[in-house]
Write a structure and sequence with these properties.
The structure is a homodimer of 422-residue chains. With 422 residues, the first copy, chain A, is of the alpha/beta class. Chain A has helices at 3-7, 18-21, 28-39, 54-67, 85-93, 101-113, 161-179, 197-204, 208-211, 236-254, 266-276, 291-297, 315-322, 326-332, 337-351, 398-419, and strands at 11-16, 44-50, 70-74, 97-99, 127-129, 133-135, 144-149, 152-157, 187-193, 214-221, 224-231, 258-261, 281-285, 306-311, 355-361, 376-383, 386-393. In chain A, helix 4 packs across helix 5 and helix 11 runs parallel beside helix 16. Strand 2 of chain A pairs antiparallel with strand 2 of chain B.
Chain lengths: 422, 422
Amino acid sequence: MSDATAAVCCSEILTIGDEILRGDVVNENAAHIGRALAEAGVPARFSSVIPDDLEAITEAIRQALARAQVIVVTGGLGPTPDDLTRDAVASCFGFPLVEDAALLTHVRELFRQRGMAMPETSRNQALFPVGARQIPNAHGTATGIHVICDGRHLFALPGVAIEMRQMTDEYVKPAVQAAFADAQVRTRTLRLSGIGESHLLEQLGDQTEVSALVRIAYLPHHGLLDLRLTALSPDEYEAAAQIAFAEGFIRERVGGHVYATGSTSLAEVIGNILMNRCQKLATAESCTGGLVADMLTNVPGASRWFERGWITYSNPSKNEDLNVPGGMLDEHGAVSESVARAMAEGARHRAGTDWALSCTGIAGPTGGSAEKPVGTVWIAVAAEGGVWARHLKFSGLRETIKLRTAHAALSFLYQHLLETRA
Amino acid sequence: MSDATAAVCCSEILTIGDEILRGDVVNENAAHIGRALAEAGVPARFSSVIPDDLEAITEAIRQALARAQVIVVTGGLGPTPDDLTRDAVASCFGFPLVEDAALLTHVRELFRQRGMAMPETSRNQALFPVGARQIPNAHGTATGIHVICDGRHLFALPGVAIEMRQMTDEYVKPAVQAAFADAQVRTRTLRLSGIGESHLLEQLGDQTEVSALVRIAYLPHHGLLDLRLTALSPDEYEAAAQIAFAEGFIRERVGGHVYATGSTSLAEVIGNILMNRCQKLATAESCTGGLVADMLTNVPGASRWFERGWITYSNPSKNEDLNVPGGMLDEHGAVSESVARAMAEGARHRAGTDWALSCTGIAGPTGGSAEKPVGTVWIAVAAEGGVWARHLKFSGLRETIKLRTAHAALSFLYQHLLETRA
């Protein structure tokens, strides 16, 4: 790392755990912490995963302290013998580990609330490095550790997602914001649907003028695309102007594809439109198997605009629950334009909703044919004004095809919601 | 890193991209590569995320080459200006980057197949470091890079998941297995449901005998728990015996909780049981909003045992689609034992299946009350022999409550499938 990069205020994330290195667990914790640190204005410059090994953890913390102002460690605070973060932090700063009476009471109380006696193995949850600050853990027994030393902040959090998230959001992020208030970096994310990376670059054309002011990162997500803009100026007001210029440049060229800014999901945007119009939606899924409804119902308050859904995996269910004619299924097959349309119309009729969205396709790996290979998909939208269908062709693994189909279906619904202004 | 650890044959994963550091994208790629490397017998000892910065990438590759025998880099091979991995690899090994005529034809052909002309920005996809081997990319324009130098192997793959996965599985993993055939590490994963980490430790009791032979990692996943056993002996036969001893030790104490070994999911186990018995399943979901059906339909061939599902988000849908009596909904509320039972019975009856699984609850953040707070959940299973219900209480964010409910529902169904031997 050069002196130039070290001079910029930055953070570093250390995730502890063999399970992450082996890929048994996907590192969602680092993503959550990364977002919080970016939003707090001290973005991560480096992120690493360290095995459950005292020497490796201690060495990683030492290295991180040498190049970052904020270090967030997650994992290794639990009660099992491979939980070594507490010892590594104590060793790095030369703090003794002592049993804390108040923490012991807290741990006992948590077990009591769950109707259990505290296992003796959990007693180490009350050990805490003298000289560090405690980060309260509302959901579990592992108390977080906050050390301030030479203007650097180290936070050690448990690896259990709900505990780590709550402690990051309620303690780490405000503490970093307060300590590095002057380091805010201006960033903005534009979220696009219906355009790929290569053709976006073509539509944008010559970016010389923009790239002198902002840095653009291209983040594709299975058919959706995010553009993350980061202003180059360290000055707050100049940075805001740079972002505004770049956003104007992009919207002028591909504005029709921008469905949101920030972290708002396509499902949320759809939900907001429906809620504002007092309209309701039903879904009828075959190949996505509930994934579209799952995405929609991840939006808090979805019950105000999502009425119901069907997963009509078999032909009889398409016929019985959605009134898709048996003869149509025989003649065209379940993966066909007519069946996609009939599913959407049937769902809208049966649910009595303003809108219905359907998908039917072959997610694979089996079930394909020469005429309809794996990845063949039909989606349809039904509303008062008509029924629209689209044919899609995807490649990839079963879960990828499900995901791309679900994103394409939501994009298709969004487009028709926009075209049918209330 | 000590000499002792450097002497062990190990690998290292470098993920390139600001989007991962900022948490815009979860690092699923590193998990996939980590699994492949562990299975190939050269587990990752270190994994890091590097910004889109030529100097940082080059430095990270140099460091990795100094401590690992296998380095897998993912990301930064695309056509955009922030794709810098190709340049970093060329610079590390002193290889010139030259336009490869065959690669250019390949890139043009891929665009032609999609009915598009190759954008000029994608021409850099044909640049390749002279002296490296090409890793074919069936799904995209970025060719992977394989360098062998001083007995070390570096693989650079694109960050697009489907491309990275196919290249990891079909090229990297076999190449690593072939090059490090004598380094196989014996590992085994036992997957448990219905038991937490603390109480598992209590049930296991004194582990001295086992821990002299194997290392055990505890991997909780929202109510499910994996135990990863790694044999300590470098000898293949001795390692197999160590794993067998540890597995016997664990099964003797908590065998009733072990639903699978390896990477088999609970949904797959359920599907296999149903398929072997020629039985079918239907689902009726409220608070999980399709997540249970999504998990079940992620299993290839699910259509042979999954008949259909309902997402009855509204009260009218519970009544109309599942015959839940309106009076019951009024009297007990949608989140109640009687409604969970009626949903499962209604789904089984309407779908004509052997089994039905239901869940109803309050996922939050709104909708809770003093009597029924957020996280209150009822699940039920219906079969020929009866209907069983269970009350659950979770805390956490909306998506966490959905996930824990779905896992608990699958565990509950699994338990009743076992108790009702065909």
